[in-house]
Amino acid sequence: MPLLAPTPELELDVPKGAAAVSHTVVSFRDTTRIAREDQLAVEEPLEIRLGGKSLAVTMRTPGHDEELVAGLLLSERVIEGRADIDAIAHYTGPEDDPRIGNVINVLLNRPGPTIHERLHRSFFTSSACGVCGKTSLDAIDTDLRPIAGDVAVPLEALYSLGPALAAAQTTFEQTGGLHAAALFDLQGQLLAVREDVGRHNAVDKVVGHMLLQGRLPLDRHILMVSGRASFEIMQKALVARIPVVAAISAPSSLAVQLALANGVTLIGFLRPGRLNVYANAHRIRVTPA
Questions:
Q1: How confident is the model over 14-29, as pLDDT tens digits?
Q2: What positions carry a catalytic annotation?
Q3: SS3 letters for 214-270?
Q4: Which one of 28, 82, 93, 247 is most buried, by most CB atoms within 10 A?
């Protein structure tokens, strides 16, 4: 077979704010070569500014940036609710400014002296990285009270979550390259879904969506994530007071430990008709046959 011609060095033309972009790929099926158009999940930096001062840079999929930042500030406990946010908006400037769409500024109603201690990520972090931006083990500790209450979830409702999440993952359907987080009520009704290249970003977007609508705490809701359940995802759920967390894949040992210590029901390997419960199975209600 003749050698392939070198591919010209070109930059991807990514429209501002796009979640996916078209790109020509060369596919091989056995020895047959086919050039075709494919869709890529967009990953771009987002600079977060607090009162005009640069606080952090994270990689994310554009879209719902205000929700992402609001959810991040809540999970890092910089804010306690919607009332703490005065304004949250993208940077505005000349249309050809590369910062357009990738810088967001937040003004708080009651900025405190511990803000930069609680959100000490003033350096580049990746979309796959959550607690790796922390500066010490103390920063990943939590002093939140455990989740109690009489919440019960029908087993049949849990079995329905996976198909509902998959049906709502529009950009994943195009690209195959995004994580998703979804929020359901206790009967399995889908309330919100967000996609992102980062698992923790998707969770922040979902929680931020509810926060900006003034609908916290989420103490009668279920969070589902498309990948594994990590410590940070569990910590975000705990801050939002979510009592049930379900994942398509496995939980980590630290996620299970956090769930056990704080009364969160943690479910892994969720599929229609089967699941594993790693902590607090008492919330799952089984209807007799």
A1: 888 888 888 888 888 8
A2: 129
A3: CCCCCCCEEEEECCCECHHHHHHHHHCCCCEEEECCCECHHHHHHHHHHCCEEEEEE
A4: 247
